[in-house]
């Protein structure tokens, strides 16, 4: 009986050590980096992230695993480089892509966001009623550099089947569309809604085709070179807890 009790104590201490190790010390910090992409991340690249879904979700996760939280905005290519090197611990939002698995592990899905093709309401051609990738061949579509869409769409963009124009920030696509510099752009529904709130005049001129391009399944990516990679099961537990108690919904509906 005594040996059994000691064994249980050892296992319990080991469990606590496993989940607390990355947060040990005087100033435990969960470090997040992402790029500027309202409403997920609001601010200027090169500065601290202080608002947006990524900030709110990162803050809540760090609180529940008993760590402090630090977040910075960087260009997307640098974000991925930091994940590879372990300069930062996590990034959000991000999709689980095969090429990223070499240097990151991914949590359960936190947010599901639909992607549409957005165009001017005044269009009277076939674009608003597109159904297949072939239907998009006559048009020029705006995209954000470094972002990925549904596999078939990514392939069509990569091989040049669809003509595209790249921008570094999503906001530029709105301005280019209103200036009739291309036919349409690809974007997540929540991102466009955020811009409609900020610029109500956009909603009077821009709409989306009914066809869904893809569904972005956004997760937290954790650098394999971060000690927090070992906490993936615990972070997943926290994420499911946040879904269950309504925290994720409250953040996304602010």
UniProtKB/TrEMBL annotation:
**Name listed for the protein in its UniProt record:** Periplasmic component of amino acid ABC-type transporter/signal transduction system
Q: Does the keyword Ribonucleoprotein apply?
A: no
Domain Solute-binding protein family 3/N-terminal, chain residue ranges per copy: 29-254
Q: Which keywords does UniProt give here? A: Signal
InterPro entries tied to this protein: Solute-binding_3/MltF_N (IPR001638)
Keyword RNA-binding on entry? no
Query: Which residues belong to the signal peptide in this entry?
Result: 1-24
Whose protein is this, by species?
Desulfobacter postgatei 2ac9
């Amino acid at each position: 009986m005594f040996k059994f009790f000691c064994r249980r104590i050892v296992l319990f201490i080991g469990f606590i050590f496993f989940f607390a190790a990355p947060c040990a010390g005087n100033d435990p910090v969960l470090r997040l980096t992402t790029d500027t992409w309202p409403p997920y991340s609001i601010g200027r690249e090169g500065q601290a992230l202080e608002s947006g879904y990524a900030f709110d979700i990162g803050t809540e996760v760090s609180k529940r695993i008993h760590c402090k939280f630090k977040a910075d905005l960087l260009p997307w290519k640098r974000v991925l480089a930091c994940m590879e090197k372990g300069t930062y611990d996590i990034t959000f939002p991000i999709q689980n892509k095969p090429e990223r698995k070499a240097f990151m592990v991914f949590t359960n899905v936190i947010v599901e966001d639909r992607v549409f093709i957005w165009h001017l309401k005044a269009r009277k051609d076939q674009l608003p009623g597109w159904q297949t990738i072939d239907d998009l061949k006559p048009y020029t579509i705006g995209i954000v550099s470094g972002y990925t869409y549904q596999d078939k769409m990514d392939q069509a963009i990569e091989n040049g089947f669809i003509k595209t124009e790249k921008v570094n920030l999503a906001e530029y696509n709105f301005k280019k569309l209103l200036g009739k510099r291309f036919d349409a752009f690809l974007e997540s529904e929540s991102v466009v809604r955020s811009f409609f709130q900020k610029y109500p005049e956009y909603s009077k001129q821009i709409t989306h085709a009914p066809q869904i391009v893809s569904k972005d399944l956004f997760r937290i990516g954790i650098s394999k070179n971060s000690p927090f990679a070992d906490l993936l099961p615990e972070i997943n537990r926290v994420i499911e807890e946040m879904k269950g108690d309504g925290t994720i919904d409250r953040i996304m509906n602010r």
